[in-house]
Amino acid sequence: MNQNSFLRLGGIRDVETFRNYLQELHISIPCDAKVLAGDTSPLGQPLHRGDVVLGNRFAIQPMEGWDGTSDGRPTELTFRRWRRFGASGAKLIWGGEAVAVCHEGRANPNQLAIGPHAIADLSRLREALIQEHERSVGSVAGLLIGLQLTHSGRYSRPNSHDRPEPRILYHHPILDKRLGITDEYPLVADREIRQIIEDFQRAARVAHEAGFDFVDIKHCHGYLGHEFLSAHTRAGDYGGSFDNRTRFLREVVMGIRSLTPGLKIAVRLSAFDTVPFKPDPQSSVDGKPGRGVPDSFNALLPYRYGFGVNPENPVELDLTEPAQFLALLSRLDIGLVNLSAGSPYHNPHVQRPALFPPSDGYLPPEDPLVGVAQQMQATYKLKQQFPNLTIVGSAYTYLQDFLPHVAQGAVREGWVDCVGLGRMVLAYPTLPLDVISGREMQRKQICRTFSDCTTAPRAGLPSGCYPFDEHYSRSKEAGQLKDLKHRSKARRE
Ligand SMILES: Cc1cc2nc3c(=O)[nH]c(=O)nc-3n(C[C@H](O)[C@H](O)[C@H](O)COP(=O)(O)O)c2cc1C
Ligand code: SF4
Fold first, then answer.
1. pLDDT score at 134
2. What is the rounded distance in angstroms from the CA atom of residue 173 to the CA atom of residue 169?
3. Which of 63, 355, 379 to mutate to test ligand 1, by most ligand atoms within 8 A of the CB atom?
4. Which ligand 1 atom sits nearest the alpha carbon of residue 338?
5. How far is the centre of ligand 1, averaged over its atoms, from the C-alpha of 254 (Å)?
6. CB 58 within 8 A of CB 419
7. Of 86, 195, 242, 423, whose CB has the highest number of CB atoms within 10 Å?
8. What pLDDT digit, counting tens, does each position of 247-297 carry?
C-alpha cells in the first residue's frame, strides 16, 4: 500500500463528497455543510471563562523554526514568523514556539533559549506580533499570548543538529535502541530535576517580565515534561505512582506561583501516546520505507512506557490517567489546556497526520483522517468530563479545504473550545481571518501535508513552508532540501 491509496482531499471540491467520504471511513466527527461568517460565526464568537477572555475560537499552535542564533536569540526569520502569527487573526497565540529553559534542554542548536537577553528579545517578539495583529485585525481586544517553555529531555540536541545529547528519565526498551542509548547511560538524577524545575520557574519570570499573559509548561511530544508522565519504571521521587510522575508539574507550578504571582499557567499535553512506529519491513521495497507499523511490543506487556495507553494493548487509548491529569490541572487552578498526542519523532502519523511522510518517517498506516478523528474524539471525551477547562484541540490541518467546516462543527457542538492551527498557518497564515470574515478560501495556499517543514529541520535547515511560502520556496535552502530529497530517493532506488 502507498499513500496514493488514500483519497487526496485536494481533489474534492464540495463538502457533501467529503462528508460521504467520512461516512465511508466510519469516521464520526462534526462537519458543517455551510461555514458562517461575521456575527453568526461560531468560530468568531468570543469566549469568557474565569480569567480567560478570548476574542475568537482560533488558536495558533506553537511552532519552532530552527532559525534562532547559537546563543538562543531570535533572528529576522523568527520575527517574520511571529508577525505572521499575529496577522492570522487568531486571538489565542499558544506559545509562539517552544523556548528551552536552559541550553542543555534545546532540541536543536537553533532553538530559542532563555539566556541573558531573553527579556528584551521575547518582549520584542511579542510586540512585533501585537503590532501586526492590530494592523491586520484593527484591534487587540481579546488577544491572549503565551510562551511555551520546554526542556527537550530525550530529544535534546543543544550543540549540533546531528549530535543527540539525550537526557532521559528512564530506560525505554524501544526508544533507547533507536537513539543508541546503552543500559549504562545515566538517568537525569533527582537533584538535576530540581535544578531544571528552578530553570522553568526562572524562565516563567522572564516571560512575565517580557509581557506574556501565560506560560505553557510543555507536557507533550516525547520531551521531558511528557516523559515524566510515563516514568512508571523510574525509582525515587519523580517516577512510579501517578503522584510521583506529576511531581515535576506540581513543583514547577508551586514555584511559579510564589515567584511570579499573577502569571497565568497553561499546559500542552500529549493526551495519549502509542508505541513507537517504524516502516514495515515487509512493504519496504528497494530501500523505500513501507507503511508504518508498531514496533514489536509483545515481550513488553504489560507495557509500562506510555501515557494514555492501555498497558495490555498499548496501541489502544486509555484516557483514565489523562483524565486524572486534567483533574489535577483543575485542582492547581490551571484553566487553559491544549491537547495534542504522540510525538513527531516516534509516531508522527499520530501527532501530525500527513499524506506525505517526513524524511525519517514511514508511509501513513491509515488514512490520515483517522489520526485527525482520533485526536478530536479524545479531546471531546475529555472536554465532556471537564467543561470548566478551556480546551484547545490540535491536528486539524490535514482537513485542508474542509478545516473550516469541521472546526466550526466542533466548536458549535462543544467538542472543543478553540481550534488550534499548526502547519496550516505556515502555508496559509490568514486562514482564520478569511474564515471569520467570510472571504473565499485561498485554495492555492492550503497546506497539503508535504512535510517539508518537518524534513528540513531533520537536515539542519530552517523550518518553514517550502512549497507555499515564497520566502522559503525562493531560498537557497529550498535547493538544498530538493537535493537532499533527490539524494535520498536515489539511495533508495
Ligand atoms: C514545523 C513544526 C514545528 C513545531 N513545533 C512545535 C513546538 O515548538 N511546540 C509544540 O508544542 N508543537 C510543535 N509542533 C506541533 C504543532 O504545534 C501541532 O501540534 C502539529 O503540527 C499538528 O497540528 P496541525 O495538524 O495543525 O499541523 C510543531 C509542528 C511543526 C509542523
Ligand atoms: S511544508 Fe507547507 S505544505 Fe508541507 S506540511 Fe509544512 S506547511 Fe504543509
1. 98
2. 13
3. 63
4. 11
5. 28
6. yes
7. 86
8. 999 999 999 999 999 999 999 999 999 999 999 988 877 767 899 999 999
Q: Which of 225-239, 274-288, 430-444 has the lowest mean pLDDT?
A: 274-288
**Rounded to whole angstroms, how far apart are CA atoms 465 and 346?**
22
For atom 25 of ligand 1, the residue with the nearest CA is: 395
Helix ranges (H only) for 386-462 are: 403-412, 423-427, 431-436, 452-458
Cβ 396 under 6 angstroms from ligand 1: yes
Spell out a b/e string for 118-144, using b for 16 or more CB atoms within 10 Å of the CB, else e.
bbebbbebbebbbebbeebbeeeeebb
Q: Is 421 in the pocket of ligand 1 (CB under 6 A)?
A: yes
Ligand nearest to the CA of 62: 1
b/e sequence 18-56, b meaning 16+ C-beta within 10 Å: bbebbeeeebebbbbeebbbeeebbbbeebeeeebebbb
pLDDT in tens, 210-223: 999 999 999 999 99
Residue among 314, 317, 201 at smallest CA distance from 258:
201
CA of 422 to the centre of ligand 2 (A): 10
E strand map for 295-414: 309-310, 313-317, 336-340, 390-393
Q: Identify the nearest ligand to the CA of 108 by its number.
A: 1
Ligand nearest the Cα of residue 357 is 2
Largest CA distance in the chain: 61
What is the distance between the alpha carbons of residues 360 and 367, in angstroms, rounded to a whole number? Answer: 19
C-alpha 454 to ligand 1 mean position (Å): 9
Grid coordinates of 279 = 516502516
Q: CA-CA distances (angstroms) from residue 317 to 140, 207, 306? A: 39, 35, 10
Q: What CA–CA distance (Å, rounded) separates 300 from 88?
A: 45
User: Which residue's alpha carbon is at the smallest distance from atom 2 of ligand 1?
Assistant: 63
How far CA 259 is from CA of 256, 263, 284, 311, in Å, comes to 5, 10, 53, 39
CA of 428 relative to ligand 2 center, distance in Å: 10
Please report the pLDDT score of residue 482 as a whole number. 82
Gyration radius (Cα) of the chain, Å: 21
Locate the ligand 1 atom nearest the alpha carbon of residue 95 and give its number: 9
For the chain, how far is it from start to end, CA to CA, in angstroms?
Answer: 18
pTM for this model (two decimals): 0.97
Write the CA distances from 493 to 180, 360, 486, integer angstroms.
27, 16, 10
For ligand 1, whether the C-beta of 78 sits within 6 Å is: no
Q: Which three cell numbers stand for residue 38?
A: 461575521
- Residue whose Cα lies nearest atom 3 of ligand 2: it is 447
Ligand 2 pocket at CB < 6 A:
423, 426-427, 447-453, 465-468
Amino acid at 77: L
- Looking from the CA of residue 97, the nearest atom of ligand 1 is 8
